[in-house]
Design goal:
With 457 residues, this protein is α+β, with helices and mostly antiparallel strands. It is built from 13 helices and twelve strands. The C terminus is likely disordered.
Length: 457
């Protein structure tokens, strides 16, 4: 916007300067020419009284010398009463031009080498017509024109530069509020809910800034209302959870009872976490630092230990690989556990009893890949399942689990893909970036597949 305004002002000012400077320069040139010929007419008029009195050569030479210069003035007296024609001074005009002026009886100008001449007819006492010739060199015709044109050019350039400077200042006054508005929108999009824009600049931009600030206030209020609503809804779960905990405590001893009590305890912890998170004053928008992650191998072992009891009850074969060594990832422990529980819960929910499943962890240089696969019937339309996982509500969804997994992966710069597993069913691949910027190399995917094939042999 700033440069566009400068360009428009430059074009308009240049056209205005040209429209006025060119005609003014031509007028100045014409005025200089008129001035030069006016001086020539005055010189010719100074000789006219003497010609009306005498035609003697000596007297006329003195008159010509006093009126001007014999190098620039000449007098042409025709032959009268048997007297020879007299030419005084240096004549430059052609004889035909002089004869034409005598015949017409009025002044005339003609071009000669180096300039022009003024031919002024003067009546003699005898009735004959003498012609006074005054030479006007080109330097006198253009005297002062170059200086005047230079002054016009300097003034025009100064006007153009001044207009550009003024347009630039006006552009800055318009652009800076627009830039602040764009920066505020960018900050608000990044989750900085305190971003506001000063209401400065032109009227339109002030109105836009006021509308942006009002929108930001409404967004903050809506998020606060949603947090309160989430906290209230989660708080309502405490009563049925208390009943479940009391019932689980009365189940006695045994693997199933222990598993039920552990599930109820974990559910209570998750509800408490939801309530605390929802009631926080600010949303969690910062990326987890190096010390805020967890050991993916440890979390996988823990969750597989939990799900293994249910797998044994349903006769499912299961396998876990890649968890022999620590695998650090920039993801909170609770988030990774929730994602694994969502995927494994989908396996138990959407496959028949006895269906095998596996969890593999591949630790790369710049990414960690977690694969959860099963030997079920697979997903007929993976794209539709992922689409509903993003909240579209399309058919073919696997539920909220994929949305939880997707958010976890995208928080690190990774992604989630659905495909066919080597077990014959569905494979969910979670790419977790270790630096949050570089994409996962294709070589990692091939290495994971080769490793899993070898493990199944």
């Amino acid at each position: 916007m700033r440069w566009a305004l400068v360009k428009v002002c430059l074009a308009v000012t240049t056209m205005v300067v040209v429209a006025f400077a060119v005609p003014l320069g031509l007028v100045i040139k014409e005025m200089a020419r008129d001035r030069a010929f006016s001086n020539a007419e005055r010189q010719a008029a100074a000789v006219a009284p003497a010609l009306s009195i005498t035609t003697e050569r000596e007297q006329l030479e003195r008159v010509v010398a006093s009126a001007g210069s014999d190098a620039q003035m000449a007098v042409h007296i025709p032959e009268v009463d048997g007297k020879q024609a007299v030419d005084i001074g240096r004549g430059r005009a052609a004889g035909a031009d002089i004869a034409t002026v005598r015949k017409m009886g009025r002044a005339s100008t003609t071009e000669v080498p180096g300039g022009s001449t003024l031919l002024q007819p003067v009546a003699l006492s005898s009735g004959a017509i003498a012609v006074v010739e005054v030479y006007v060199p080109e330097s006198e015709v253009s005297n002062g024109v170059g200086t005047a044109w230079a002054v016009l050019a300097v003034v025009g350039a100064a006007l153009v530069v001044g207009s550009v400077a003024v347009a630039d200042r006006l552009g800055v006054r318009m652009v800076q509020p627009a830039q602040r508005l764009a920066e505020g929108a960018h900050e608000l999009g990044e989750g900085k809910l305190g971003a506001r824009v000063p209401e400065e600049g032109p009227t339109e931009l002030r109105l836009a800034a006021a509308a942006f600030n009002s929108m930001a206030d409404q967004v903050v209020q809506l998020l606060a209302n949603e947090r309160e609503l989430a906290a209230d809804l989660s708080h309502r779960l405490r009563t049925p959870l208390t009943v479940l905990r009391l019932n689980a405590a009365s189940l006695g001893e045994g693997p199933a009872a222990d598993q039920t009590r552990a599930a109820v305890a974990q559910l209570e912890r998750e509800v408490d976490t939801i309530i605390r998170t929802a009631r926080e004053a600010k949303p969690q928008t910062a990326v987890a630092g190096a010390g805020a992650g967890c050991d993916a191998a440890e979390v996988v072992r823990e969750r597989m230990k939990f799900w293994s009891a249910l797998a044994e009850d349903e006769g499912r074969k299961w396998r876990v690989a890649g968890v022999e060594r620590p695998v650090r990832i920039p993801v909170a422990r609770a988030d990774l556990a929730a994602a694994l529980d969502a995927l494994l819960g989908n396996v138990f929910r959407h496959t028949a009893e006895g269906t095998a499943f596996a969890v593999d962890v591949h630790n790369g240089d710049d990414a960690v890949i977690v694969l959860v696969s099963d030997a079920g019937p697979g997903i007929a339309d993976p794209e539709a399942a992922m689409a509903r996982g993003r909240g579209s509500g399309a058919d073919g969804s696997t539920g909220l689990g994929l949305d939880i997994v997707r958010r976890l992966a995208e928080s690190t710069g990774g992604d989630v893909r659905l495909g066919s597993s080597v077990l014959g069913g569905t494979e969910v691949r979670i790419w977790i970036q270790l630096d949050g910027r570089r994409p996962v190399r294709r070589g990692h995917r091939g290495a994971v597949r080769r490793r899993r094939r070898l493990a199944l042999r």
